[in-house]
Amino acid sequence: MALYSAAAAVLEGLERGDGGIKTLVYNSRFPHVRQLYALVSETLRYSPVLEKLLAGAALLQAEKKLPPQLAKVLVYDLLFGKGLKCGGRWKVLARRHRARLEAELARLKVQQKVSRNEDLLAPAQAASPAASRVPRYVRVNTLKTRVDDVIDFFKRQGYSYLGKAGSVEELRALSGKKFLLDLHLPELLVFPPQTDFHDNLLYTSGHIILQDKASCLPAFLLSPAAGSHVIDACAAPGNKTSHLAAILKNKGQIFAFDVDTKRLATMNTMLMRAGVTSFQLAQQDFLTVDPGDPKYSRVTYILLDPSCSGSGMVNRVPREEAAPSAERLQALASFQRKVLSHALSFPALRRLVYSTCSLHQEENEDVVHAVLRERGSAFRLVNTFPSWPCRGLAAFPGAECCLRASPADTLTHGFFVAVLERHGEGAAAPSSLLAAAEENPQHEGPEPGAAPKKRKRKKQRVK
Predict the structure, then answer these.
(1) What does the pLDDT look like over 336-354, one tens digit per residue?
(2) What's the pTM value of the predicted model, to 2 decimals?
(3) Through-space distance between the first and last CA atoms of the chain, rounded to whole angstroms
(4) How far is CA 449 from CA 13, 78, 150, 202, 433, in A?
């Protein structure tokens, strides 16, 4: 049963936009990761077919306690996989409906005029072309090591380092065992698409974080100064939280919120592995957090990455509908406006980053515009990171201050980022890292191989 439960949990995480398949599988703590990855991948591949079978057989109506994602996993293994070799009481339940499910499968084959199960799969279920173009991004965890040392480690493993990229086209041309330093973010290494590091020593020891480039932008642009108090409002699965801790150099305090117990437990494990020490996790809806609580009186930075449609994720769960309904978008945007307005009510707040992995204007520019109008002149959009090529849609004057990302233009997942600062006295000053990037966008940080500055505490070298 553990296998099917773990697979269902990964599918739920994908639907929420918690991360990619590999990240969720390897963070699941399931002992047989290859078995779990294969089951999740195949269930995803057959997802539209499974939805038709479940609907035709009325399985979820007959078994109201059976979670939909678990039902998909069970029916996949029953009809297309190994025939339910495990599963306990859920196996008994699924087998009770076997005749109805097999009849529905036969009817579907007749309807589509095919004889093999594979022929039920439409071309739309093939791997996304966008996913195949996005490189493998590796963020060096500076809490444990240095960029120079990680580059040397990969070179000893047979990879060829090509230096710092000068353009997105250089990233697009990567192949084989070649890698580059990213042209925008100073602690991000770039490898060819589909490069797998989940079994690599650097990943398992927390020296590197496998994180899409666009997902690195929120913490990088928030850029809190060391010693600051920061809120990560919708924190799980924790990659952005660990990035914040690295920028803070573990000095200061991060308050991280999420409502899901399992997600928080996974996040705690990941943060500990990454060497993060200055954090407090809370199983709490951020909207219920009291901005007037003395505990948060020193919070000057907030990273807000709320639930969204996830339409920018290139490896999302396949769906029959290409886009969320207007009603769904309206509900999401209403929640996002509410949570952004709540975040801006923290009295000491100076700088906030609002981000989504959505492509829809309703969740992005429209949300920011509505809340800024509501807040009057208290906060303003910052025209940050001028070297970033894709700007916000012209939804309102100043929307070009926002950033967008896409597989086609930036070789990343689809993303949106807006930086808001308190207007006038008390406005945040960007940290030295971000200031350097904005003053000279082609030289955001020291080139690997340059003599490192003297440090009070020596980083652990990767051997």
Answers:
(1) 999 999 999 999 999 999 9
(2) 0.75
(3) 39
(4) 39, 55, 11, 19, 18
Domains by residue range for the chain, with CATH:
3-121 (no CATH), 136-210 (3.30.70.1170), 221-422 (3.40.50.150)
> Is there a binding annotation on residue 236?
yes
Cα distance between residue 350 and residue 337, in whole Å: 19
Q: Establish whether 285 is an annotated binding residue.
A: yes
86 labelled binding-site residue: no
Which range in 76-85, 108-117, 228-237, 264-273 is most confidently predicted, on average pLDDT? 228-237
Q: Which secondary structure element, helix H or strand E, spans residue 53, and what is its range?
A: helix 47-57
422-447 confidence digits (pLDDT tens):
987 555 555 555 655 555 544 344 33
Known catalytic membership, residue 357? yes
> Choosing from 357, 390, 401, 402, which is the catalytic residue?
357
The response to whether 324 counts as a known ligand-binding position is: no
The conformation of residue 462, written as its DSSP 8-state character, comes to P
Annotation-wise, does 235 bind a ligand? yes
Q: What CA–CA distance (Å, rounded) separates 137 from 122?
A: 30
- Say which range, 98-102, 207-211, 278-282, has the weakest mean pLDDT: 98-102
Angle (nearest 5°) at CA 390 between 386 and 396: 90
The Cα 214–Cα 36 span in angstroms is 27
DSSP characters over 380-409 = EE----TT-S-B--SSSTTGGGSEEE-HHH
Q: Is 107 helix (H, G, I), strand (E, B) or coil?
A: helix
Report the 3 state secondary structure along 68-100: HHHHHHHHHHHHCCCCCCCCHHHHHHHHHCHHH
